[in-house]
Design brief:
Layout: H1 2-29, H2 32-36, H3 44-58, H4 68-83, H5 85-94, E1 109-111, E2 116-118, H6 142-152, E3 158-163, H7 168-187, E4 190-195, H8 200-206, E5 213-218, E6 221-224, H9 231-241, E7 247-249, H10 255-259, H11 262-265, E8 269-274, H12 281-289, E9 295-300, H13 307-312, E10 321-325, E11 334-337, H14 343-351, H15 364-370, E12 382-388, H16 395-406, E13 413-419, H17 424-430, E14 442-448, E15 454-462, H18 467-482, E16 489-492, H19 504-525, H20 528-563, H21 567-574, H22 578-581, E17 595-596, H23 602-607, E18 614-620, H24 625-636, E19 645-651, H25 652-663, H26 667-677, E20 690-694, E21 699-703, H27 717-721, H28 732-735, H29 741-753, H30 759-768, E22 774-775
Helix pairs in contact: 3-4, 4-5
Length: 789
């Protein structure tokens, strides 16, 4: 008994000594102000600025100091305390944080390939526990991502986690992920979870090759998270995904310029008054979702430059206030004020104020939303459209039309105007004009009947803004409410011109700037391990390019040297010397390499030809071999620069059966031969035919020779060799018994030589892709050799 009491006493003493030691170590390291080098009165902006500077300086991937990792963790935890008002107040009052363990002892850092996370908490090692938080609610599949997430990412950003069942590292980030998801989803951020074990295709599509990984998707673009997995970091990551120019800072210096730009941008303007110096994330997300409809500004109530604005609009300083301005820049069209604004309230507020009272039709999308197509009888929508001009002389009438539209209380009627000069085709139809001259402004009431452009309309009155014009329009609207059939004209409306198309260049510049900023940020903050594939690809491409240029330079110089002493031999070869004509290949230098298509080369040169490559095959006989090969090489020589073209010849004396089988699939191409030559009763001479064979896609293009040379006896080309098949006259020797043998042989040689006269033009059409294609189910075999008769 005494021994057990002694053991218990020693254990208690040991525990107390450990706790006291831990407290002694914790004391000097628990001061987040000292770690960040800040005063206790530092503002949130100062804390954030210092944290970003220190985080870059002490990031373990950039700082090789042995203490960089521990210092980076301390900086991060200090920022977590001071950036959270509750944690900061708790520390200022009691000198304590939510964590009971000190930075140095009992806590260690795990460095994952994608980011850092803290392992100061206990967890059970069960592969399914990290799935307790309902990941299945956010599980993404490939088709769902492509069809739903990517289009939706143009309205809101997505935060996606890559995980797997047996990923123990994923368990560490689960509590933080759960907390961030609950907060971000309430703000309108899309959430997704990809299980690599079930959606490997989607993970590869996103470029996520390890678990866990966290990434963001916005405007269809994927961005990876590379920082410490902490709540504040993930919130900042989502905020950094958004474009930089969503919300404009408004003060007394630029308030009039901001509010009066409604006419140029054709949008209502929204102003948020709040006391925080930084634009709230909820407001930025709202601005991104409604960027196509509204222009957003932010007023910091803590600045002296905004005091007069708060007095002018009678702003309550105790709650955020949101104002919508339309055509009247001095008076808000709508207002909302509440503490802790919720996303649902803001969305409803924005949806009710998406358009001006009388917006200008600037593109087809706006026209479709303002004047939707009729779907049901009780959902009729009518558009009162003012066709006017943008000159100063029309300003009074335009302003009076706006005043009239501001008194409208009927939901079924929308008011809009259009500039005749910018939307001439639409205006000509509605005004029933035959000439394009600009005429007096006119008001038209229309109803769209289908998406193809059909509409019913009625020109109401010429418009100059007088009281008579207003009264006449009121009467027509009352008649329309009782009898919709007063819209007596119908027409097919053309698609509207996009008047903001000229702003594409500016948007492209902004997008390029954002992209370059992201690239620079990735280079500075990514793990170099993840950057290695990209760097390897870049250096490989540069090496290949440099090597190609050097080899080409040396090969060109060597070819020039070898060509000069052999110029005389080359001339003889081109003129058809016996040495060159007896070979089945063209000359070796500065000419075309042509291989014979046999049962040995058949698989590699046709059946297993690489995708995108084509084999140009010349059909010949033993008698015409030398003449046609020489002519063929000259005709296709200018196309040898293409790496996707290969050149071969087929001996029809050996493989006529293969040729007949192949051309059965090109019956349309052979129909002319059938009509002209009684195909079936006479055997077709395929000599001089050229086939362009695509082995991968299994189609062919066919060249049929046409004799274009002149007859030696003065006969026309049609008499001697003008048939589409290019056949030589088999009865020429019998019909002309007195003709000398060498004379007959000369005519036959000339005919064969001219069969390929138009091959160059055919090759140009082949490269353009304008030739007809004949698809076949499978390539016939070339094993059998037709026995010679």
């Amino acid at each position: 008994m005494a021994w057990s009491k002694m053991s218990l006493l020693l254990a208690v003493v040991a525990v107390l000594s450990v706790l006291l030691t831990g407290s002694a170590h914790a004391g000097p390291e628990m001061d987040p102000y000292k770690i960040l080098g800040l005063a206790r009165s530092a503002s949130q902006a100062e804390i954030k600025k210092v944290y970003k500077r220190l985080a870059k300086e002490w990031h373990p991937d950039k700082n090789k100091n042995p203490d960089a990792e521990d210092m980076f963790i301390k900086i991060t935890k200090s920022y977590e305390i001071l950036s959270n008002e509750d944690k900061r107040a708790n520390y200022d009052r009691y000198g304590q944080t939510d964590d009971t363990q000190p930075y140095g002892s009992g806590r260690y850092r795990h460095h994952h390939d994608s980011f850092y996370f803290d392992e100061s908490f206990n967890f059970p090692f069960n592969s399914k526990n990290h799935r307790d938080f309902t990941d299945s609610k956010y599980t993404l599949h490939f088709n769902q991502y492509v069809n739903d997430v990517v289009p939706d990412s143009y309205k809101r950003p997505y935060l996606i986690k890559i995980t797997s069942d047996w990923c123990f590292s994923c368990i560490h980030i689960e509590p933080i992920w759960k907390e961030v998801v609950e907060e971000m989803e309430a703000l309108g951020v899309g959430i997704g979870v990809v299980d690599v074990g079930y959606e490997r295709r989607l993970a590869n599509h996103l470029g996520a090759h390890r678990t866990p990984s966290i990434l963001g998707v916005i405007n269809g673009k994927v961005t990876f998270f590379h920082y410490v997995v902490a709540k504040e970091h993930l919130k900042q990551f989502v905020e950094d995904l958004l474009p930089q120019r969503l919300v404009e800072q408004v003060t007394e210096k630029n308030d009039l310029q901001f509010l009066n730009s409604w006419h140029e941008l054709n949008k209502p303007h929204v102003l948020l008054f709040d006391q925080v110096p930084v634009v709230p994330l909820l407001y930025k997300l709202t601005a991104f979702a409604y960027k196509d409809y509204l222009q957003f500004g932010y007023v910091d109530q803590g600045l002296s430059e905004t005091a007069n604005l708060q007095k002018q609009f009678n702003i309550n300083t105790y709650a955020p206030t949101m104002l919508v301005f339309k055509e009247n820049a001095g008076k808000p069209a709508d207002i909302i004020q509440a503490k802790g604004m919720k996303k649902q309230i803001i969305d409803e507020f924005m949806s009710n104020n998406k358009f001006l009272l009388a917006p200008r039709l600037v593109n087809q999308k706006l026209f479709d939303e303002l004047c939707p197509v009729k779907q049901f009888h009780r959902r009729r929508k009518y558009c009162v459209l003012l066709i006017t001009g943008d000159e100063e002389t029309f300003s009074f009438g335009n302003q009076e039309f706006l005043s009239f539209a501001s008194t409208n209380t009927k939901e079924v009627v929308r008011f809009a105007y259009v500039y005749q000069r910018l939307q001439q085709p639409l205006c000509d139809i509605l005004m029933q004009k035959k000439d394009s001259a600009q005429s007096q402004p006119q008001v038209v009431i229309l109803e769209r009947r289908n998406a193809a452009g059909k509409a019913l309309f009625k020109p109401v009155t010429a418009w100059n803004g007088s009281e008579e014009d207003k009264q006449r329009l009121v009467e027509e609207l009352e008649r329309l409410q009782k009898d919709p059939s007063i819209l007596i004209h119908d027409a097919m409306l053309p698609e509207l011109n996009n008047e903001f198309a000229s702003m594409f260049v500016i948007r492209w510049i902004y997008a390029s700037y954002d992209y370059l900023s992201d690239v620079i940020d990735d280079i500075l903050h990514n793990n170099w391990r993840e950057m290695m594939p990209l760097l390897s690809l870049i250096f490989s491409a540069l090496f290949i390019l440099f090597g190609t240029v050097v080899i080409q330079a040396f090969s060109d110089s060597s070819e020039d040297k070898q060509t000069k002493p052999k110029a005389k031999d080359g001339t003889k070869a081109e003129n058809g010397s016996p040495g060159s004509s007896n070979s089945s290949r063209p000359p070796k230098k500065n000419f075309v390499e042509v291989t014979e298509l046999t049962d040995i080369t058949y698989m590699s040169n046709l059946v297993k030809l690489r995708p995108g490559h084509m084999n140009i095959v010349l059909v010949l006989t033993d008698a015409s071999k030398n003449i046609l090969l020489s002519k063929f090489a000259k005709e296709v020589y200018s196309f040898t620069g293409s790496l996707t073209l290969h050149f071969s010849f087929l001996n029809i004396d050996k493989h006529s059966q293969w040729m007949n089988t192949l051309l059965e699939y090109a019956q349309d191409a052979m129909q002319n031969d059938a009509d002209d030559d009684d195909w079936g009763s006479h055997k077709i001479d395929y000599t001089g035919y050229v086939l362009a064979l695509n082995g991968h896609k299994k189609y062919l293009c066919l060249f049929k020779p046409v004799y274009t040379g002149e007859d030696l006896d003065g006969k026309s080309s049609e008499d001697e060799g003008g048939t589409s098949g290019g056949r030589s006259k088999s009865g020429s020797r019998d019909d002309h018994p007195t003709r000398k043998p060498n004379r007959s042989r000369s005519i036959s040689t000339l005919q064969i030589h001219h069969k390929l006269d138009r091959l160059g033009l055919w090759m140009e059409r082949l490269m353009e892709g304008t030739l007809p294609r004949y698809y076949i189910p499978t390539w016939p075999g070339l094993e059998k050799i037709t026995p010679s008769k």
